Each structure stands twice: as C-alpha cells, then as structure tokens.
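PT: before anyone asks, these are the final sequences, not the draft ones from last week. 944 residues across everything. Please model them as a single complex and drop the result in this thread when it's through.
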Amino acid sequence: MTVSKLVGARIKRREDPALIRGLGQYVDDVRLPEMLHVAVLRSPHAHAKIKSIDAAAARQHPGVVAVVTGAELRDQIDTIPTTADNPTLRIPKHHVLAVDKVCYLGEGVAAVVAESRYTARDALDLIQVEFEPLPAVTDPEKALAPGSAVIHAEWSDNTAFRWEQTQGDLDKAFQRAHKVVKQRLVHQRLAPIAIEPRGVVARYLGTKKELTVWSSTQIPHLLKTHLAKMLKLPEEQVRVIAPDVGGGFGSKLNVYAEEGLLGYLALKLGRPVKWSEERRENFQATIHGRGQVGEVEAALKKDGTILGLKYKVVADVGAYHQLFTPAIPPFTGLMLSGCYKIPAIGIEVTAAFTNKMSTDAYRGAGRPEATYVIERLMDRIAQELKIDPVKVRKINFPTSKEFPFKTATGLAYDSGNYQLALNKALKLAGYEKLRREQKQLRNRGRYLGIGLSTYVEICAMGPGFWEYGKVEVDADGKVKVYSGASPHGQGQKTSFAQIVADQLSVPLEDIEVVHGDTAAVAKGIGTFGSRATAVGGIAVYQAGEKVREKARELASHLLEVDADDLVFSDGRFGVKGVPRRALTIQQIAQQAQTAKNLPKGMERGLSADSTFEPANFTFPFGTHICVVEVEPQTGNVEVRKYVAVDDCGKVINPLLVDGQVQGGIAQGLGQALYEGVVYDENGQLLTGSLMDYALPRAADLPHLQLARTETPSPVNPLGLKGIGEAGTIGSTPAVVSAVVDALAPFGVTHIDMPLTPQKIWTLCQGKKAASGDHR
Amino acid sequence: MMQTVAKKRVSLRINGVEQTHEVEPRLLLVDFLRDVVRLTGTHVGCDTSICGACTIMLNDAAVKSCTVLTVQADGTELLTIEGLAQGDKLHPIQDAFWECHGLQCGFCTPGMIMSAHQLLKRNPKPTENEIRHAIDGNLCRCTGYQHIVDAVQYAAKRMGQGAKTRRRS
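LR: through. Structure below.
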C-alpha cells in the first residue's frame, strides 16, 4: 500500500447525512403504486393441532384481496431452509405457514392481503381457527428426558442433533488432577431486538419476469438463492434489495417465512405487497439467541493450571431449524479453550426441540456462550484455589511466541498477545487500587465487585465463506466500489472508501460504495460473524490492487517506460527520476475508457473484481474489566466503571471501531443484568413486548473507557481481525464476574443470568456478610 | 367494530406548513405522518411507546407519536426530524450526531435527536447524567449510547457558543 493517509483515521461517516435528516430508506419506507398490505395470523398456542380454518368472513371484508392458509401454500412454496452438514441433524418440515399443526407461539397460520395495513389487521380477527392444544415442551432438558411429549412425530424423541468432539487425553487429565472444579451454567434465551423490526416488500414484473424483494436482511445474495429455490424460480429472475437496514445483530441473517410468503403473494396477485413486522411479532417469530444449559468440569493442577476440560451442554433450538440454528452450538464447542492452553478438551452437545421460536445467530453466535463458560470457570477456579483471578488467567495463557496457537478443539489462533491486553486493562482500571478500595468499603458494609474477562473470539467467517468486491474507475476519475457484504450500521461505505482512497490516491468524496442490491453487485454473501471488513474489505482491497496494477501497465505503455521504472505516489504514476513525466490515475482512467491507445490485449476500462476467501479465521481478543457496586438491601447493581482493551488487529477507522465496541458492551451487559426471553410451562411468551423485556438504557451504563492493543492478523494482507462482536463476547462474563465478586462475603460463588435485583436480594436474604478477604 | 367510521378533518402545522386532511379517527399520528404526509423519517420500533423511535415535537413537547391519535393533534404544531435542518444547513444536534458518530443503523436516530432537542431547549447545559436520563425513553441497540451522549454534549457546547454570539439566552 501507499503511505497511509485515510486508513487508520477517525473519519466521520458518509452514511450519516441522509440518516440524520430522516431521509433513510428502510423497507417500511418503500411505497410502490398499487401496493397491498399483508398481515399474518399467528398461533396463540405453543403446540396444537389445527382442526379447521374458516376464513370466509375475512375474505368478504371490504378491502381484503386475499386470505391464504398453510394447507393452500404447502405445495406452492418450498420449506424454509437450514444448513445441514451434521449427519445426526433432524430437519422437521418448516413451512411458511403452519400445515396441520403449530409448534410454537407466534407460528404463522394464515395471512391476509388487503388494500391497507389497518384493514389487513382488522381482517385477522375475522378468521376462525379451531385448535386442539397439545402438551407443550418448553424446558430443553426435560424435552430430552424419557416420557416427554414429542414435538415432531417423525422421530421418537426431541433430539434435534448431537455434536461431540474430544481431543487430548481427558481421562489422564482428570486422574492426575489435584482438584476438579465443576459449574452448571445457564445461557438464557435473548431477543436480538434490532430497533427496526423486520419487513418485506415484494413486486413481480410479469413482462420482465423479475421478482424484486426488498427485505430488512443482512444477506441479500444468500436470500436471493434461497428465495429462488423456495419459489421454484430460476435464480436470475429474483433480485433482492437490502435498503437501509435498521440493525441486525444476527436476527436478519436468515431466511424467514414472510420472505417466501411475500414473494409468492407478489407472484400470485400481480401487485406489490408489503409486510411490516410489529414488535410483538418480532418477539414471537424472529429468531432468539443463546439458549444453552451446560455443565463444565475442569481438572486442575495445584497452581491453577488447567489439565483438561469437559463441557456437556443442552442447546434449546426451538421448534424448527432456521438458517444457521444447527451451526451455533458447535461454535461454542470450538471456542471452549478460550485464550488458554488446555491440553485436553471434550465437548458433548445435545440439541433439543422445544415448542418455542428457533434460536440462531445473535451477536456473537456461540462464542459468547463459550467465553462465558471458560471465564466463569476461571473465576470459580480462583475461588476454589484462593488465588487471584488475574493470576489464574495468566498461568494458563499461551505466550505471544506460541502463535499460531493450536487449541485442543482443532483451531489455530492466528496471532495474539493476551498478557499485553490484560496488563493494559489492569493498569487503566487501577486494579490494585480497586482491590484496596473494595476491602475498605466491605468493612463499611458496602459491596464493590471487580470483574474480569479475558476473551478470544473467532471472526472473519471465514474459510468456506468468500466475499466479493469490485473497484471501477470511471473516465472522470470517480470510483465506484461494489461489495457483496451488506452492512447495516457498521459503516463500510466509509471504511471501504478509506481503503480504496489510499490505494488509488483519490479523494474520499470521489468514491461511492455500493452494496445491498443483487442487481448492482454481481455476487456476495453478506454481513455477519464480524466478516464485512476482514473478508469483504479484503476483496475490495484485492480488486483495488488489480486496478492499480492495470493502471501501472497502461501508464507504462503511455509514458513509454518500463513498468518497473514507474513510481506511484500522490495519485500519479511518475517516471523514476523524472517527476514531471507522470500521469494521474484520473488521466489513466480516461485513457482506459477512450481506449484509443491501449497496449495489446488490454481490455477497455479501468475496473477489476476479486473474491477473497481467507485460509483461516481471525481471532480478536482482549480484556474487559467491570466494577460494580451491589446493594444487598435492594439487590440493585450499579455499574461504576468499565474498561475494555480490545485487539482487532489493524484498524481502518478507530471511530467506527469504538462504536462497535461500545454497542457490543451494552448488549453483553444487557444479557448479564437485564435481558431474558421467558416462556411459561405452557409455552406462552411472557416477554412479548419491550415493556416486559428489558433492554439497557443510557442511564444503565457508565462512561466506557476503551483502549486497544494492535496485533495484526497474518491471515489477510491488511492485518484486520474484525470487531463487530467482541464487545458482546467480552462483556457478559466481566459483568457477572463483578457482581459475583461483590457478593463473595455472602458466600455467593455463581448466579445465573440475568442478575436481576430480585435474584440478588433473595440470595442475600438471611445471610450475614463474612469479613476478611474473599477473592 | 369493522364498519366504516366517518372520517374526521384535522388541520395542523407540520414543519411550518399548514395541512388539512381527512383521517380515520383511529389513525395513529405516526402512521399519519408516515403514510399520509409521507414524512418517513419518524419510525415505528415498538407497539408500546417504549422505544422512542417515533418521537416528534408536538407543541414544543417531545411525544411518542405512536401513542397519539391524529385527531388529538388537530390544531397543533408538529416538528419532525425532516423539519430540523434549515435547507442544506444541518441543525447543530444533527451535525453533532454526525461529528461524534452518534448513530450506526440510524433507525432510532430521528427520535433520539428529537429527544435531545427537547432536552437542550429545557436545559442548555446538561451534565452527562442528565443527558443519560433525558434519553431514557429512547432505545438504541447499536451504539451503547456513549457516542450519543458525546453528541448531545457537543451540540450543547456549540449551541451555547452560538447563543452567546447571537446575544440570546
């Protein structure tokens, strides 16, 4: 690369001018002539047979154009897809509207199409459905127990799949152990809650044979492929547009019933159709995250060195598999080693069907669970062996010289320096001083807790998932960058422009980044797994390199010098030693377009594309330290201080990286303290609105202190690692660790999330705080 | 319940422009703004007036327009996100959100900016804590609020300087 000017700079976003004026274009803002509105009738039962559906009155209601039911659509639309590379995977038929029976509360049963949204919703009330309720299975562990009601009659029990892996001599590790520490851990279900609910608009132009689907999605290209299959259309007849997307966090990394349904209705009715998800539908029928219950067991040496680790976990997949449902729990398994040297690791995952919405990728997607397991374990080891939680972590870290570091789960961590990030965080937080303050406050009956998490995560998905980029320089020197990544808030219209601006030495203003439309971008995968920059950005970078090389070749031809005698600086290819003989990239672009004097065999135009598929994942890491004060009389937790040191390799735009980390921390803290999707034993959803499901608010968070270390990744030419999920992964265990640490005088060693005041208050009741040192 | 109900006439001033429309009595103000007036900058993020994405100014008070009927707004003056900038010139709060990276996906942003607008009208020099509490009725899932708080502080400072030069307040 040329001397860096923009990469690494805090550039404010080019996305913002429209958004801050209210001129964004989200799916619900799409208005087409003759557009109809769709509303979905959803099951009020978690598990029930559909005896009959009478939609006659709804069909006659003024303004209603059509009513469709699952039985009518079953042969018209293919089932909702899932990934299937596990031989034990059981895939129940998942229709866009339920046929014969419903398996979770909120499952679509019928849909109304009407002239207005209000009319469509009115008509839902006129549909009579006769249900025969069946016993609901809601607890994943009970779902696997003998005698449980079975959800999908094709199989004899509720096992959705199994996944096991053992490496290293686990038996020997446990035989040699000085001590064994065990802990049961619950990772509650979470609702991703992008503030923009989902939405779909579909339009079919019969004359052009073109189905266009606007969807609030993270994966327009993948969605296009799946939709074509569901609707039995050739893929070239489907176009997917992801306009401005109001947050995703994994919840829009999917193929949903409504996307197939709306596509079908547009084809069938010949008029555009729109569906806008209500928030309660979002709670009921957009994927949930997490949902694991497991027991971890570690064999230890006297000094806290881990000899071996076993994790047995039950994953609650819900009623059906969504796109990546079966991929999430194994991800937890792969990341169980955390940032520690553990010679033997055994994992046993059993996934259970339950009468609930599917779980799937939610920010972190399997890694927060892994990090929570290993970090809670580190704290438990520190408690059991009475050593400082910092020390127990340091003892088990690999040194920076041991990278690439191979784990017993079969991964090779690309690069890292875990000590450095930890030491930096300890210093920033004033760890020793905090411990002294904690001691003093305890003597006065106030309970300060200091929590720590040292995390590593797996990013830049990755081998098996390429990404596409294209760079095009017009005759007037303006540059268009096309990316198959589909950002939805991450800011790649800015960061990708920074990469190309440096590469081609063109002003930022002259670069336009295009994404989110399968008709504009030839191919792509999407934005998830912290991959947009570390994979998609590299595809763009590689395309830019090709463009620059082509420009050099053309300059060499035009200036009649050897390409090796050209120097590229400040946007000009100049002859070595003769600075006045030079051509700017704009002049070269013009020559490339007019094509009057090209070298033999050179194609017209100055553009190139590239796909990039990394050879390995990247492994960002860091240390988060959280300080809380807990009030045993009320159970209230106040977060007093938060320090995060993250290492995401090289940074393109520190402003955007800070934003990602801050948002991630808020979400992880939300899981630790407030959030949880709750179904009762009948499968009724008790947290069906934002009044019942608590998201973190501004006043719940302290001012976050952020810092970085920078360990470049060797996996890609820019040394990038990815930062989209790190905050969420690092923060949850740090917050829980802090609360548990605060309550150590009450004999508390672990509390399951969310750490609500009620739980904390109950734990402290009737207990008198012991004095002395409790860490 | 399903019969057609007579429409009601409402006259109101939106972003400085007088408008008169015939609406269903049950039409929510947010739907009126989005579907009838076609000002789609005001967003719907929940059904329970918790998220604040639909926040607008009604007679100089920030309200959640998903919880107001259009007919209740008859005769009022509304300011939505689209009415904040003066032509090409951004309002200092908008500018501050841009400057401080106070938005990511941008969906909560219009409501967030309107809440900040009310805060700074009532309290031109808020502390960090006051800002955090003032935007408690607006949920953001992307930013963790820190850059939003920075933006409101930045705007307060700029507006304070502007007010001084204009010798007002």
